[in-house]
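Private note to self, pasted from the team thread so I don't lose it. Backbone tokens:
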């Protein structure tokens, strides 16, 4: 209710002089304005120091003051007021609710205590009441004045306490309870008085509550303190937590005839207690505990809780001689979604992935968010590798279906590394590291799959860190070299193209081949920089040869999945090609089937954009990945490269030859060019020629060579590559 609707004070208090003290101007002006509207003579003081100055200069009937003030606090103002104007009453208007502060204020002479934010009607009623009391105090003897103050103190402490104050008889029945119980638990004091205190105890805490009062050693110096749950009246409110402190009542200080004015049952009190509501504290503790052990975005256990559960599961598995499995899951295309659609969409994707994954877990399994887009899964009890394999396949299938994020349909895959106890490790750290290593082997082989850890995957940590450091230095020192392997016309033996292959001239280890360092480059996210260096060098070299008289020479370049999946892949690639003035129609990029099928919609769009610039598209290692013949005629694909494993199997009666037959026949039907890799013998070359395979490359014509050797070979153009 607003001040305009409050009743006017009695006539004898209208002209009362009131000092209002607060160090917050807005609250001070509000309080002063409210009192002036009621006809009071109000003087406002900003802060305790100004209040003391006004007390020295003017008489007042009443002071309303705050306790917490920066310069001079309310306690000092009350002390100064008592010294200079002992007949002036004081009322505290403060946000401080601590029992000690309230008690101290009343002991210092405060006539009442109003909590902020105050109710205007309540405040005006209190002011009127206090002014009336002051009028009575002035008319009575000094001892009566002290009695009134004592009663005010008792009234506030008991009936206006922020806690439930109660008294019990020797059997545990309520013989007094203050009105705070109504706002906290919904009961009125009248309906509780006479009932046993177990009436409000939660069923789970009845035994503890009963024992607390019956236990030995309880005294005034050794009160009983315990935390219990109290039931609220009806079912509309939740059970709340309380901290209860109970004292025995000394019969000498509490005679049986004492009564508490309508709030008591009339029975003899034997216990006095205070119940403080600590529900907010308990909920805060529970939330802090949840934060410590859970990821707040996905609500999954975090790394710390996962490790605790894994440690326990290892102990149980060792005791029962059982197996357990740890899976390390990494989302394959999360970074693309995050970079393209923003972090908010990335967070929604993580939540959607979590929801989908948890639907396929068994009771007792623990899925945790390990960090970023990485998850770990604990299967605490498995009979064999097949159990873990079955779960891994379910999870992979679950994440292959598209996710709808607002207007966007996105695709993600998952790479899963699996470590089985005890063969992949006997400790928590070993199992997690083994699963992590296995996961990176999945990443290196095209993603969207699973692998079990084996000892052959183990890489010495120190050696790997050293090689990573050297690779970063190699990029700075330009130690990476580009070699070229000719792609040759199978009929004329003339060079039609050059495939750019990276080599690393290590200062200590000599010439390193791609298999020695590209998996590490993938793992450490350096593969993009390596691929960019190869592309830049190859565009310079081959561009120079094209301009020197070989206009039809084609450059074939392998691109990493990380590059192809990047949102600005096409834009970045064409900028580099144009920067070197390299003719786009002479460039052929090689990508694997798995890269295309991992996100067919997005990759298809990028390939069409490249084809519009004139760039040729080749499918590398065709036949070894996840194939779908449907995309071959839907996408702008120009060349199929037959994997060397099939070419090596070209011997009488072997299945590899049948696969080569099928691929070549399919390419002819789709009017695509064919490049057979790994040609090493006359037998293989003759067989490919008989099938009508257009182009070949391999050791039959020599290994990849540095640009100096290629330059000499092209200098004798149109010499046949057989002389190379």
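Design output:
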């Amino acid at each position: 209710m607003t001040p305009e609707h409050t009743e006017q004070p009695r006539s004898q208090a209208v002209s009362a002089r009131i000092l209002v003290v607060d160090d917050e101007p807005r609250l001070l002006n509000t309080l002063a304005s409210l009192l002036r509207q009621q006809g009071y003579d109000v003087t406002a003081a900003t802060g305790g120091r100004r209040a003391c100055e006004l007390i020295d200069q003017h008489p007042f009937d009443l002071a309303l003051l705050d306790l917490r003030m920066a310069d001079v606090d309310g306690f000092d103002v009350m002390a100064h007021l008592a010294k200079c104007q002992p007949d002036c009453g004081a009322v505290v208007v403060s946000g401080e609710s601590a029992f000690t502060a309230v008690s101290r204020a009343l002991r210092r002479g405060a006539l009442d205590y109003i909590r902020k934010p105050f109710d205007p009607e309540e405040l005006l009623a209190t002011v009127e009441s206090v002014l009336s009391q002051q009028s009575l105090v002035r008319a009575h003897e000094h001892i009566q004045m002290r009695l009134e103050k004592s009663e005010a103190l008792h009234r506030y402490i008991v009936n206006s306490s922020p806690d439930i104050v109660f008294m019990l008889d020797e059997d545990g029945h309520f013989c007094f309870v203050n009105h705070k119980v109504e706002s906290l638990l919904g009961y009125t004091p009248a309906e509780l008085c006479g009932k046993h205190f177990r009436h409000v105890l939660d069923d789970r805490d009845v035994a503890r509550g009963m024992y607390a009062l019956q236990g030995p050693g309880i005294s005034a110096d050794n009160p009983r303190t315990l935390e219990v749950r109290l039931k609220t009246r009806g079912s509309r409110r939740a059970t709340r937590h309380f901290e209860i402190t109970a004292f025995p009542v000394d019969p000498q200080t509490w005679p049986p005839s004492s009564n508490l004015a309508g709030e008591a049952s009339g029975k003899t009190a034997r216990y006095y207690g205070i119940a403080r509501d600590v529900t907010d504290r308990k909920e805060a503790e529970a939330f802090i505990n949840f934060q410590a052990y859970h990821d707040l975005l996905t609500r999954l256990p975090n790394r710390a809780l996962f490790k605790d559960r894994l440690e326990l599961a290892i102990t149980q598995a060792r005791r029962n001689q059982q197996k357990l499995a740890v899976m390390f899951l990494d989302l394959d295309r999360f970074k693309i979604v995050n970079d393209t659609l923003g972090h908010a969409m990335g967070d929604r994707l993580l939540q959607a992935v979590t929801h989908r994954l948890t639907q396929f877990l068994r009771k007792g399994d623990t899925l945790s968010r390990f960090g970023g887009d990485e998850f770990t899964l604990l299967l605490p009890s498995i009979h064999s590798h097949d159990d873990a394999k079955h779960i891994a396949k379910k999870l992979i299938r679950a994440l292959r279906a598209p996710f709808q994020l607002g207007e966007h349909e996105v695709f993600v895959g998952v790479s899963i590394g699996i470590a089985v106890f005890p063969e992949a490790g006997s400790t928590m750290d070993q199992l997690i590291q083994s699963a992590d290593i296995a996961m990176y082997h999945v990443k290196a082989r095209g993603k969207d799959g699973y692998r079990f850890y084996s000892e052959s995957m183990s890489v010495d940590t120190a050696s790997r860190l050293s090689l990573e450091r050297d690779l970063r230095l190699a990029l700075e020192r330009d130690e990476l070299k580009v070699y070229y392997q000719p792609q040759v016309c199978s009929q004329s033996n003339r060079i039609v193209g050059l495939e750019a292959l990276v080599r690393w001239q290590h200062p200590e280890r000599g010439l390193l081949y791609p298999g020695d360092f590209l998996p590490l480059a993938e793992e450490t996210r350096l593969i993009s920089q390596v691929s960019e260096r190869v592309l830049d060098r190859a565009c310079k070299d081959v561009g120079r040869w094209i301009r020197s008289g070989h206009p039809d020479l084609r450059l074939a370049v392998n691109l990493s999945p990380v590059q192809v999946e990047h949102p600005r892949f096409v834009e970045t690639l064409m900028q580099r090609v144009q920067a070197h003035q390299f003719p786009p129609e002479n460039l052929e990029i090689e990508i694997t089937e798995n890269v295309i099928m991992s996100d067919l919609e997005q990759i298809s769009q990028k390939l069409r954009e490249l084809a519009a610039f004139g760039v040729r598209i080749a499918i590398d290692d065709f036949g070894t990945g996840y194939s779908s013949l449907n995309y071959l005629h839907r996408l702008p694909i120009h060349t199929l490269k037959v994997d060397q494993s099939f070419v090596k199997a070209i011997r009488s009666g072997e299945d590899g030859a049948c696969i080569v037959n099928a691929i070549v026949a399919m390419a002819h039907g789709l009017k695509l060019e064919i490049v057979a890799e790994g040609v090493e013998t006359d037998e293989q070359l003759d067989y490919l020629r008989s099938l009508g395979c257009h182009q070949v490359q391999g050791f039959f014509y020599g290994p990849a060579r540095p640009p100096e050797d290629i330059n000499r070979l092209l200098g004798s153009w149109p010499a046949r590559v057989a002389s190379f």
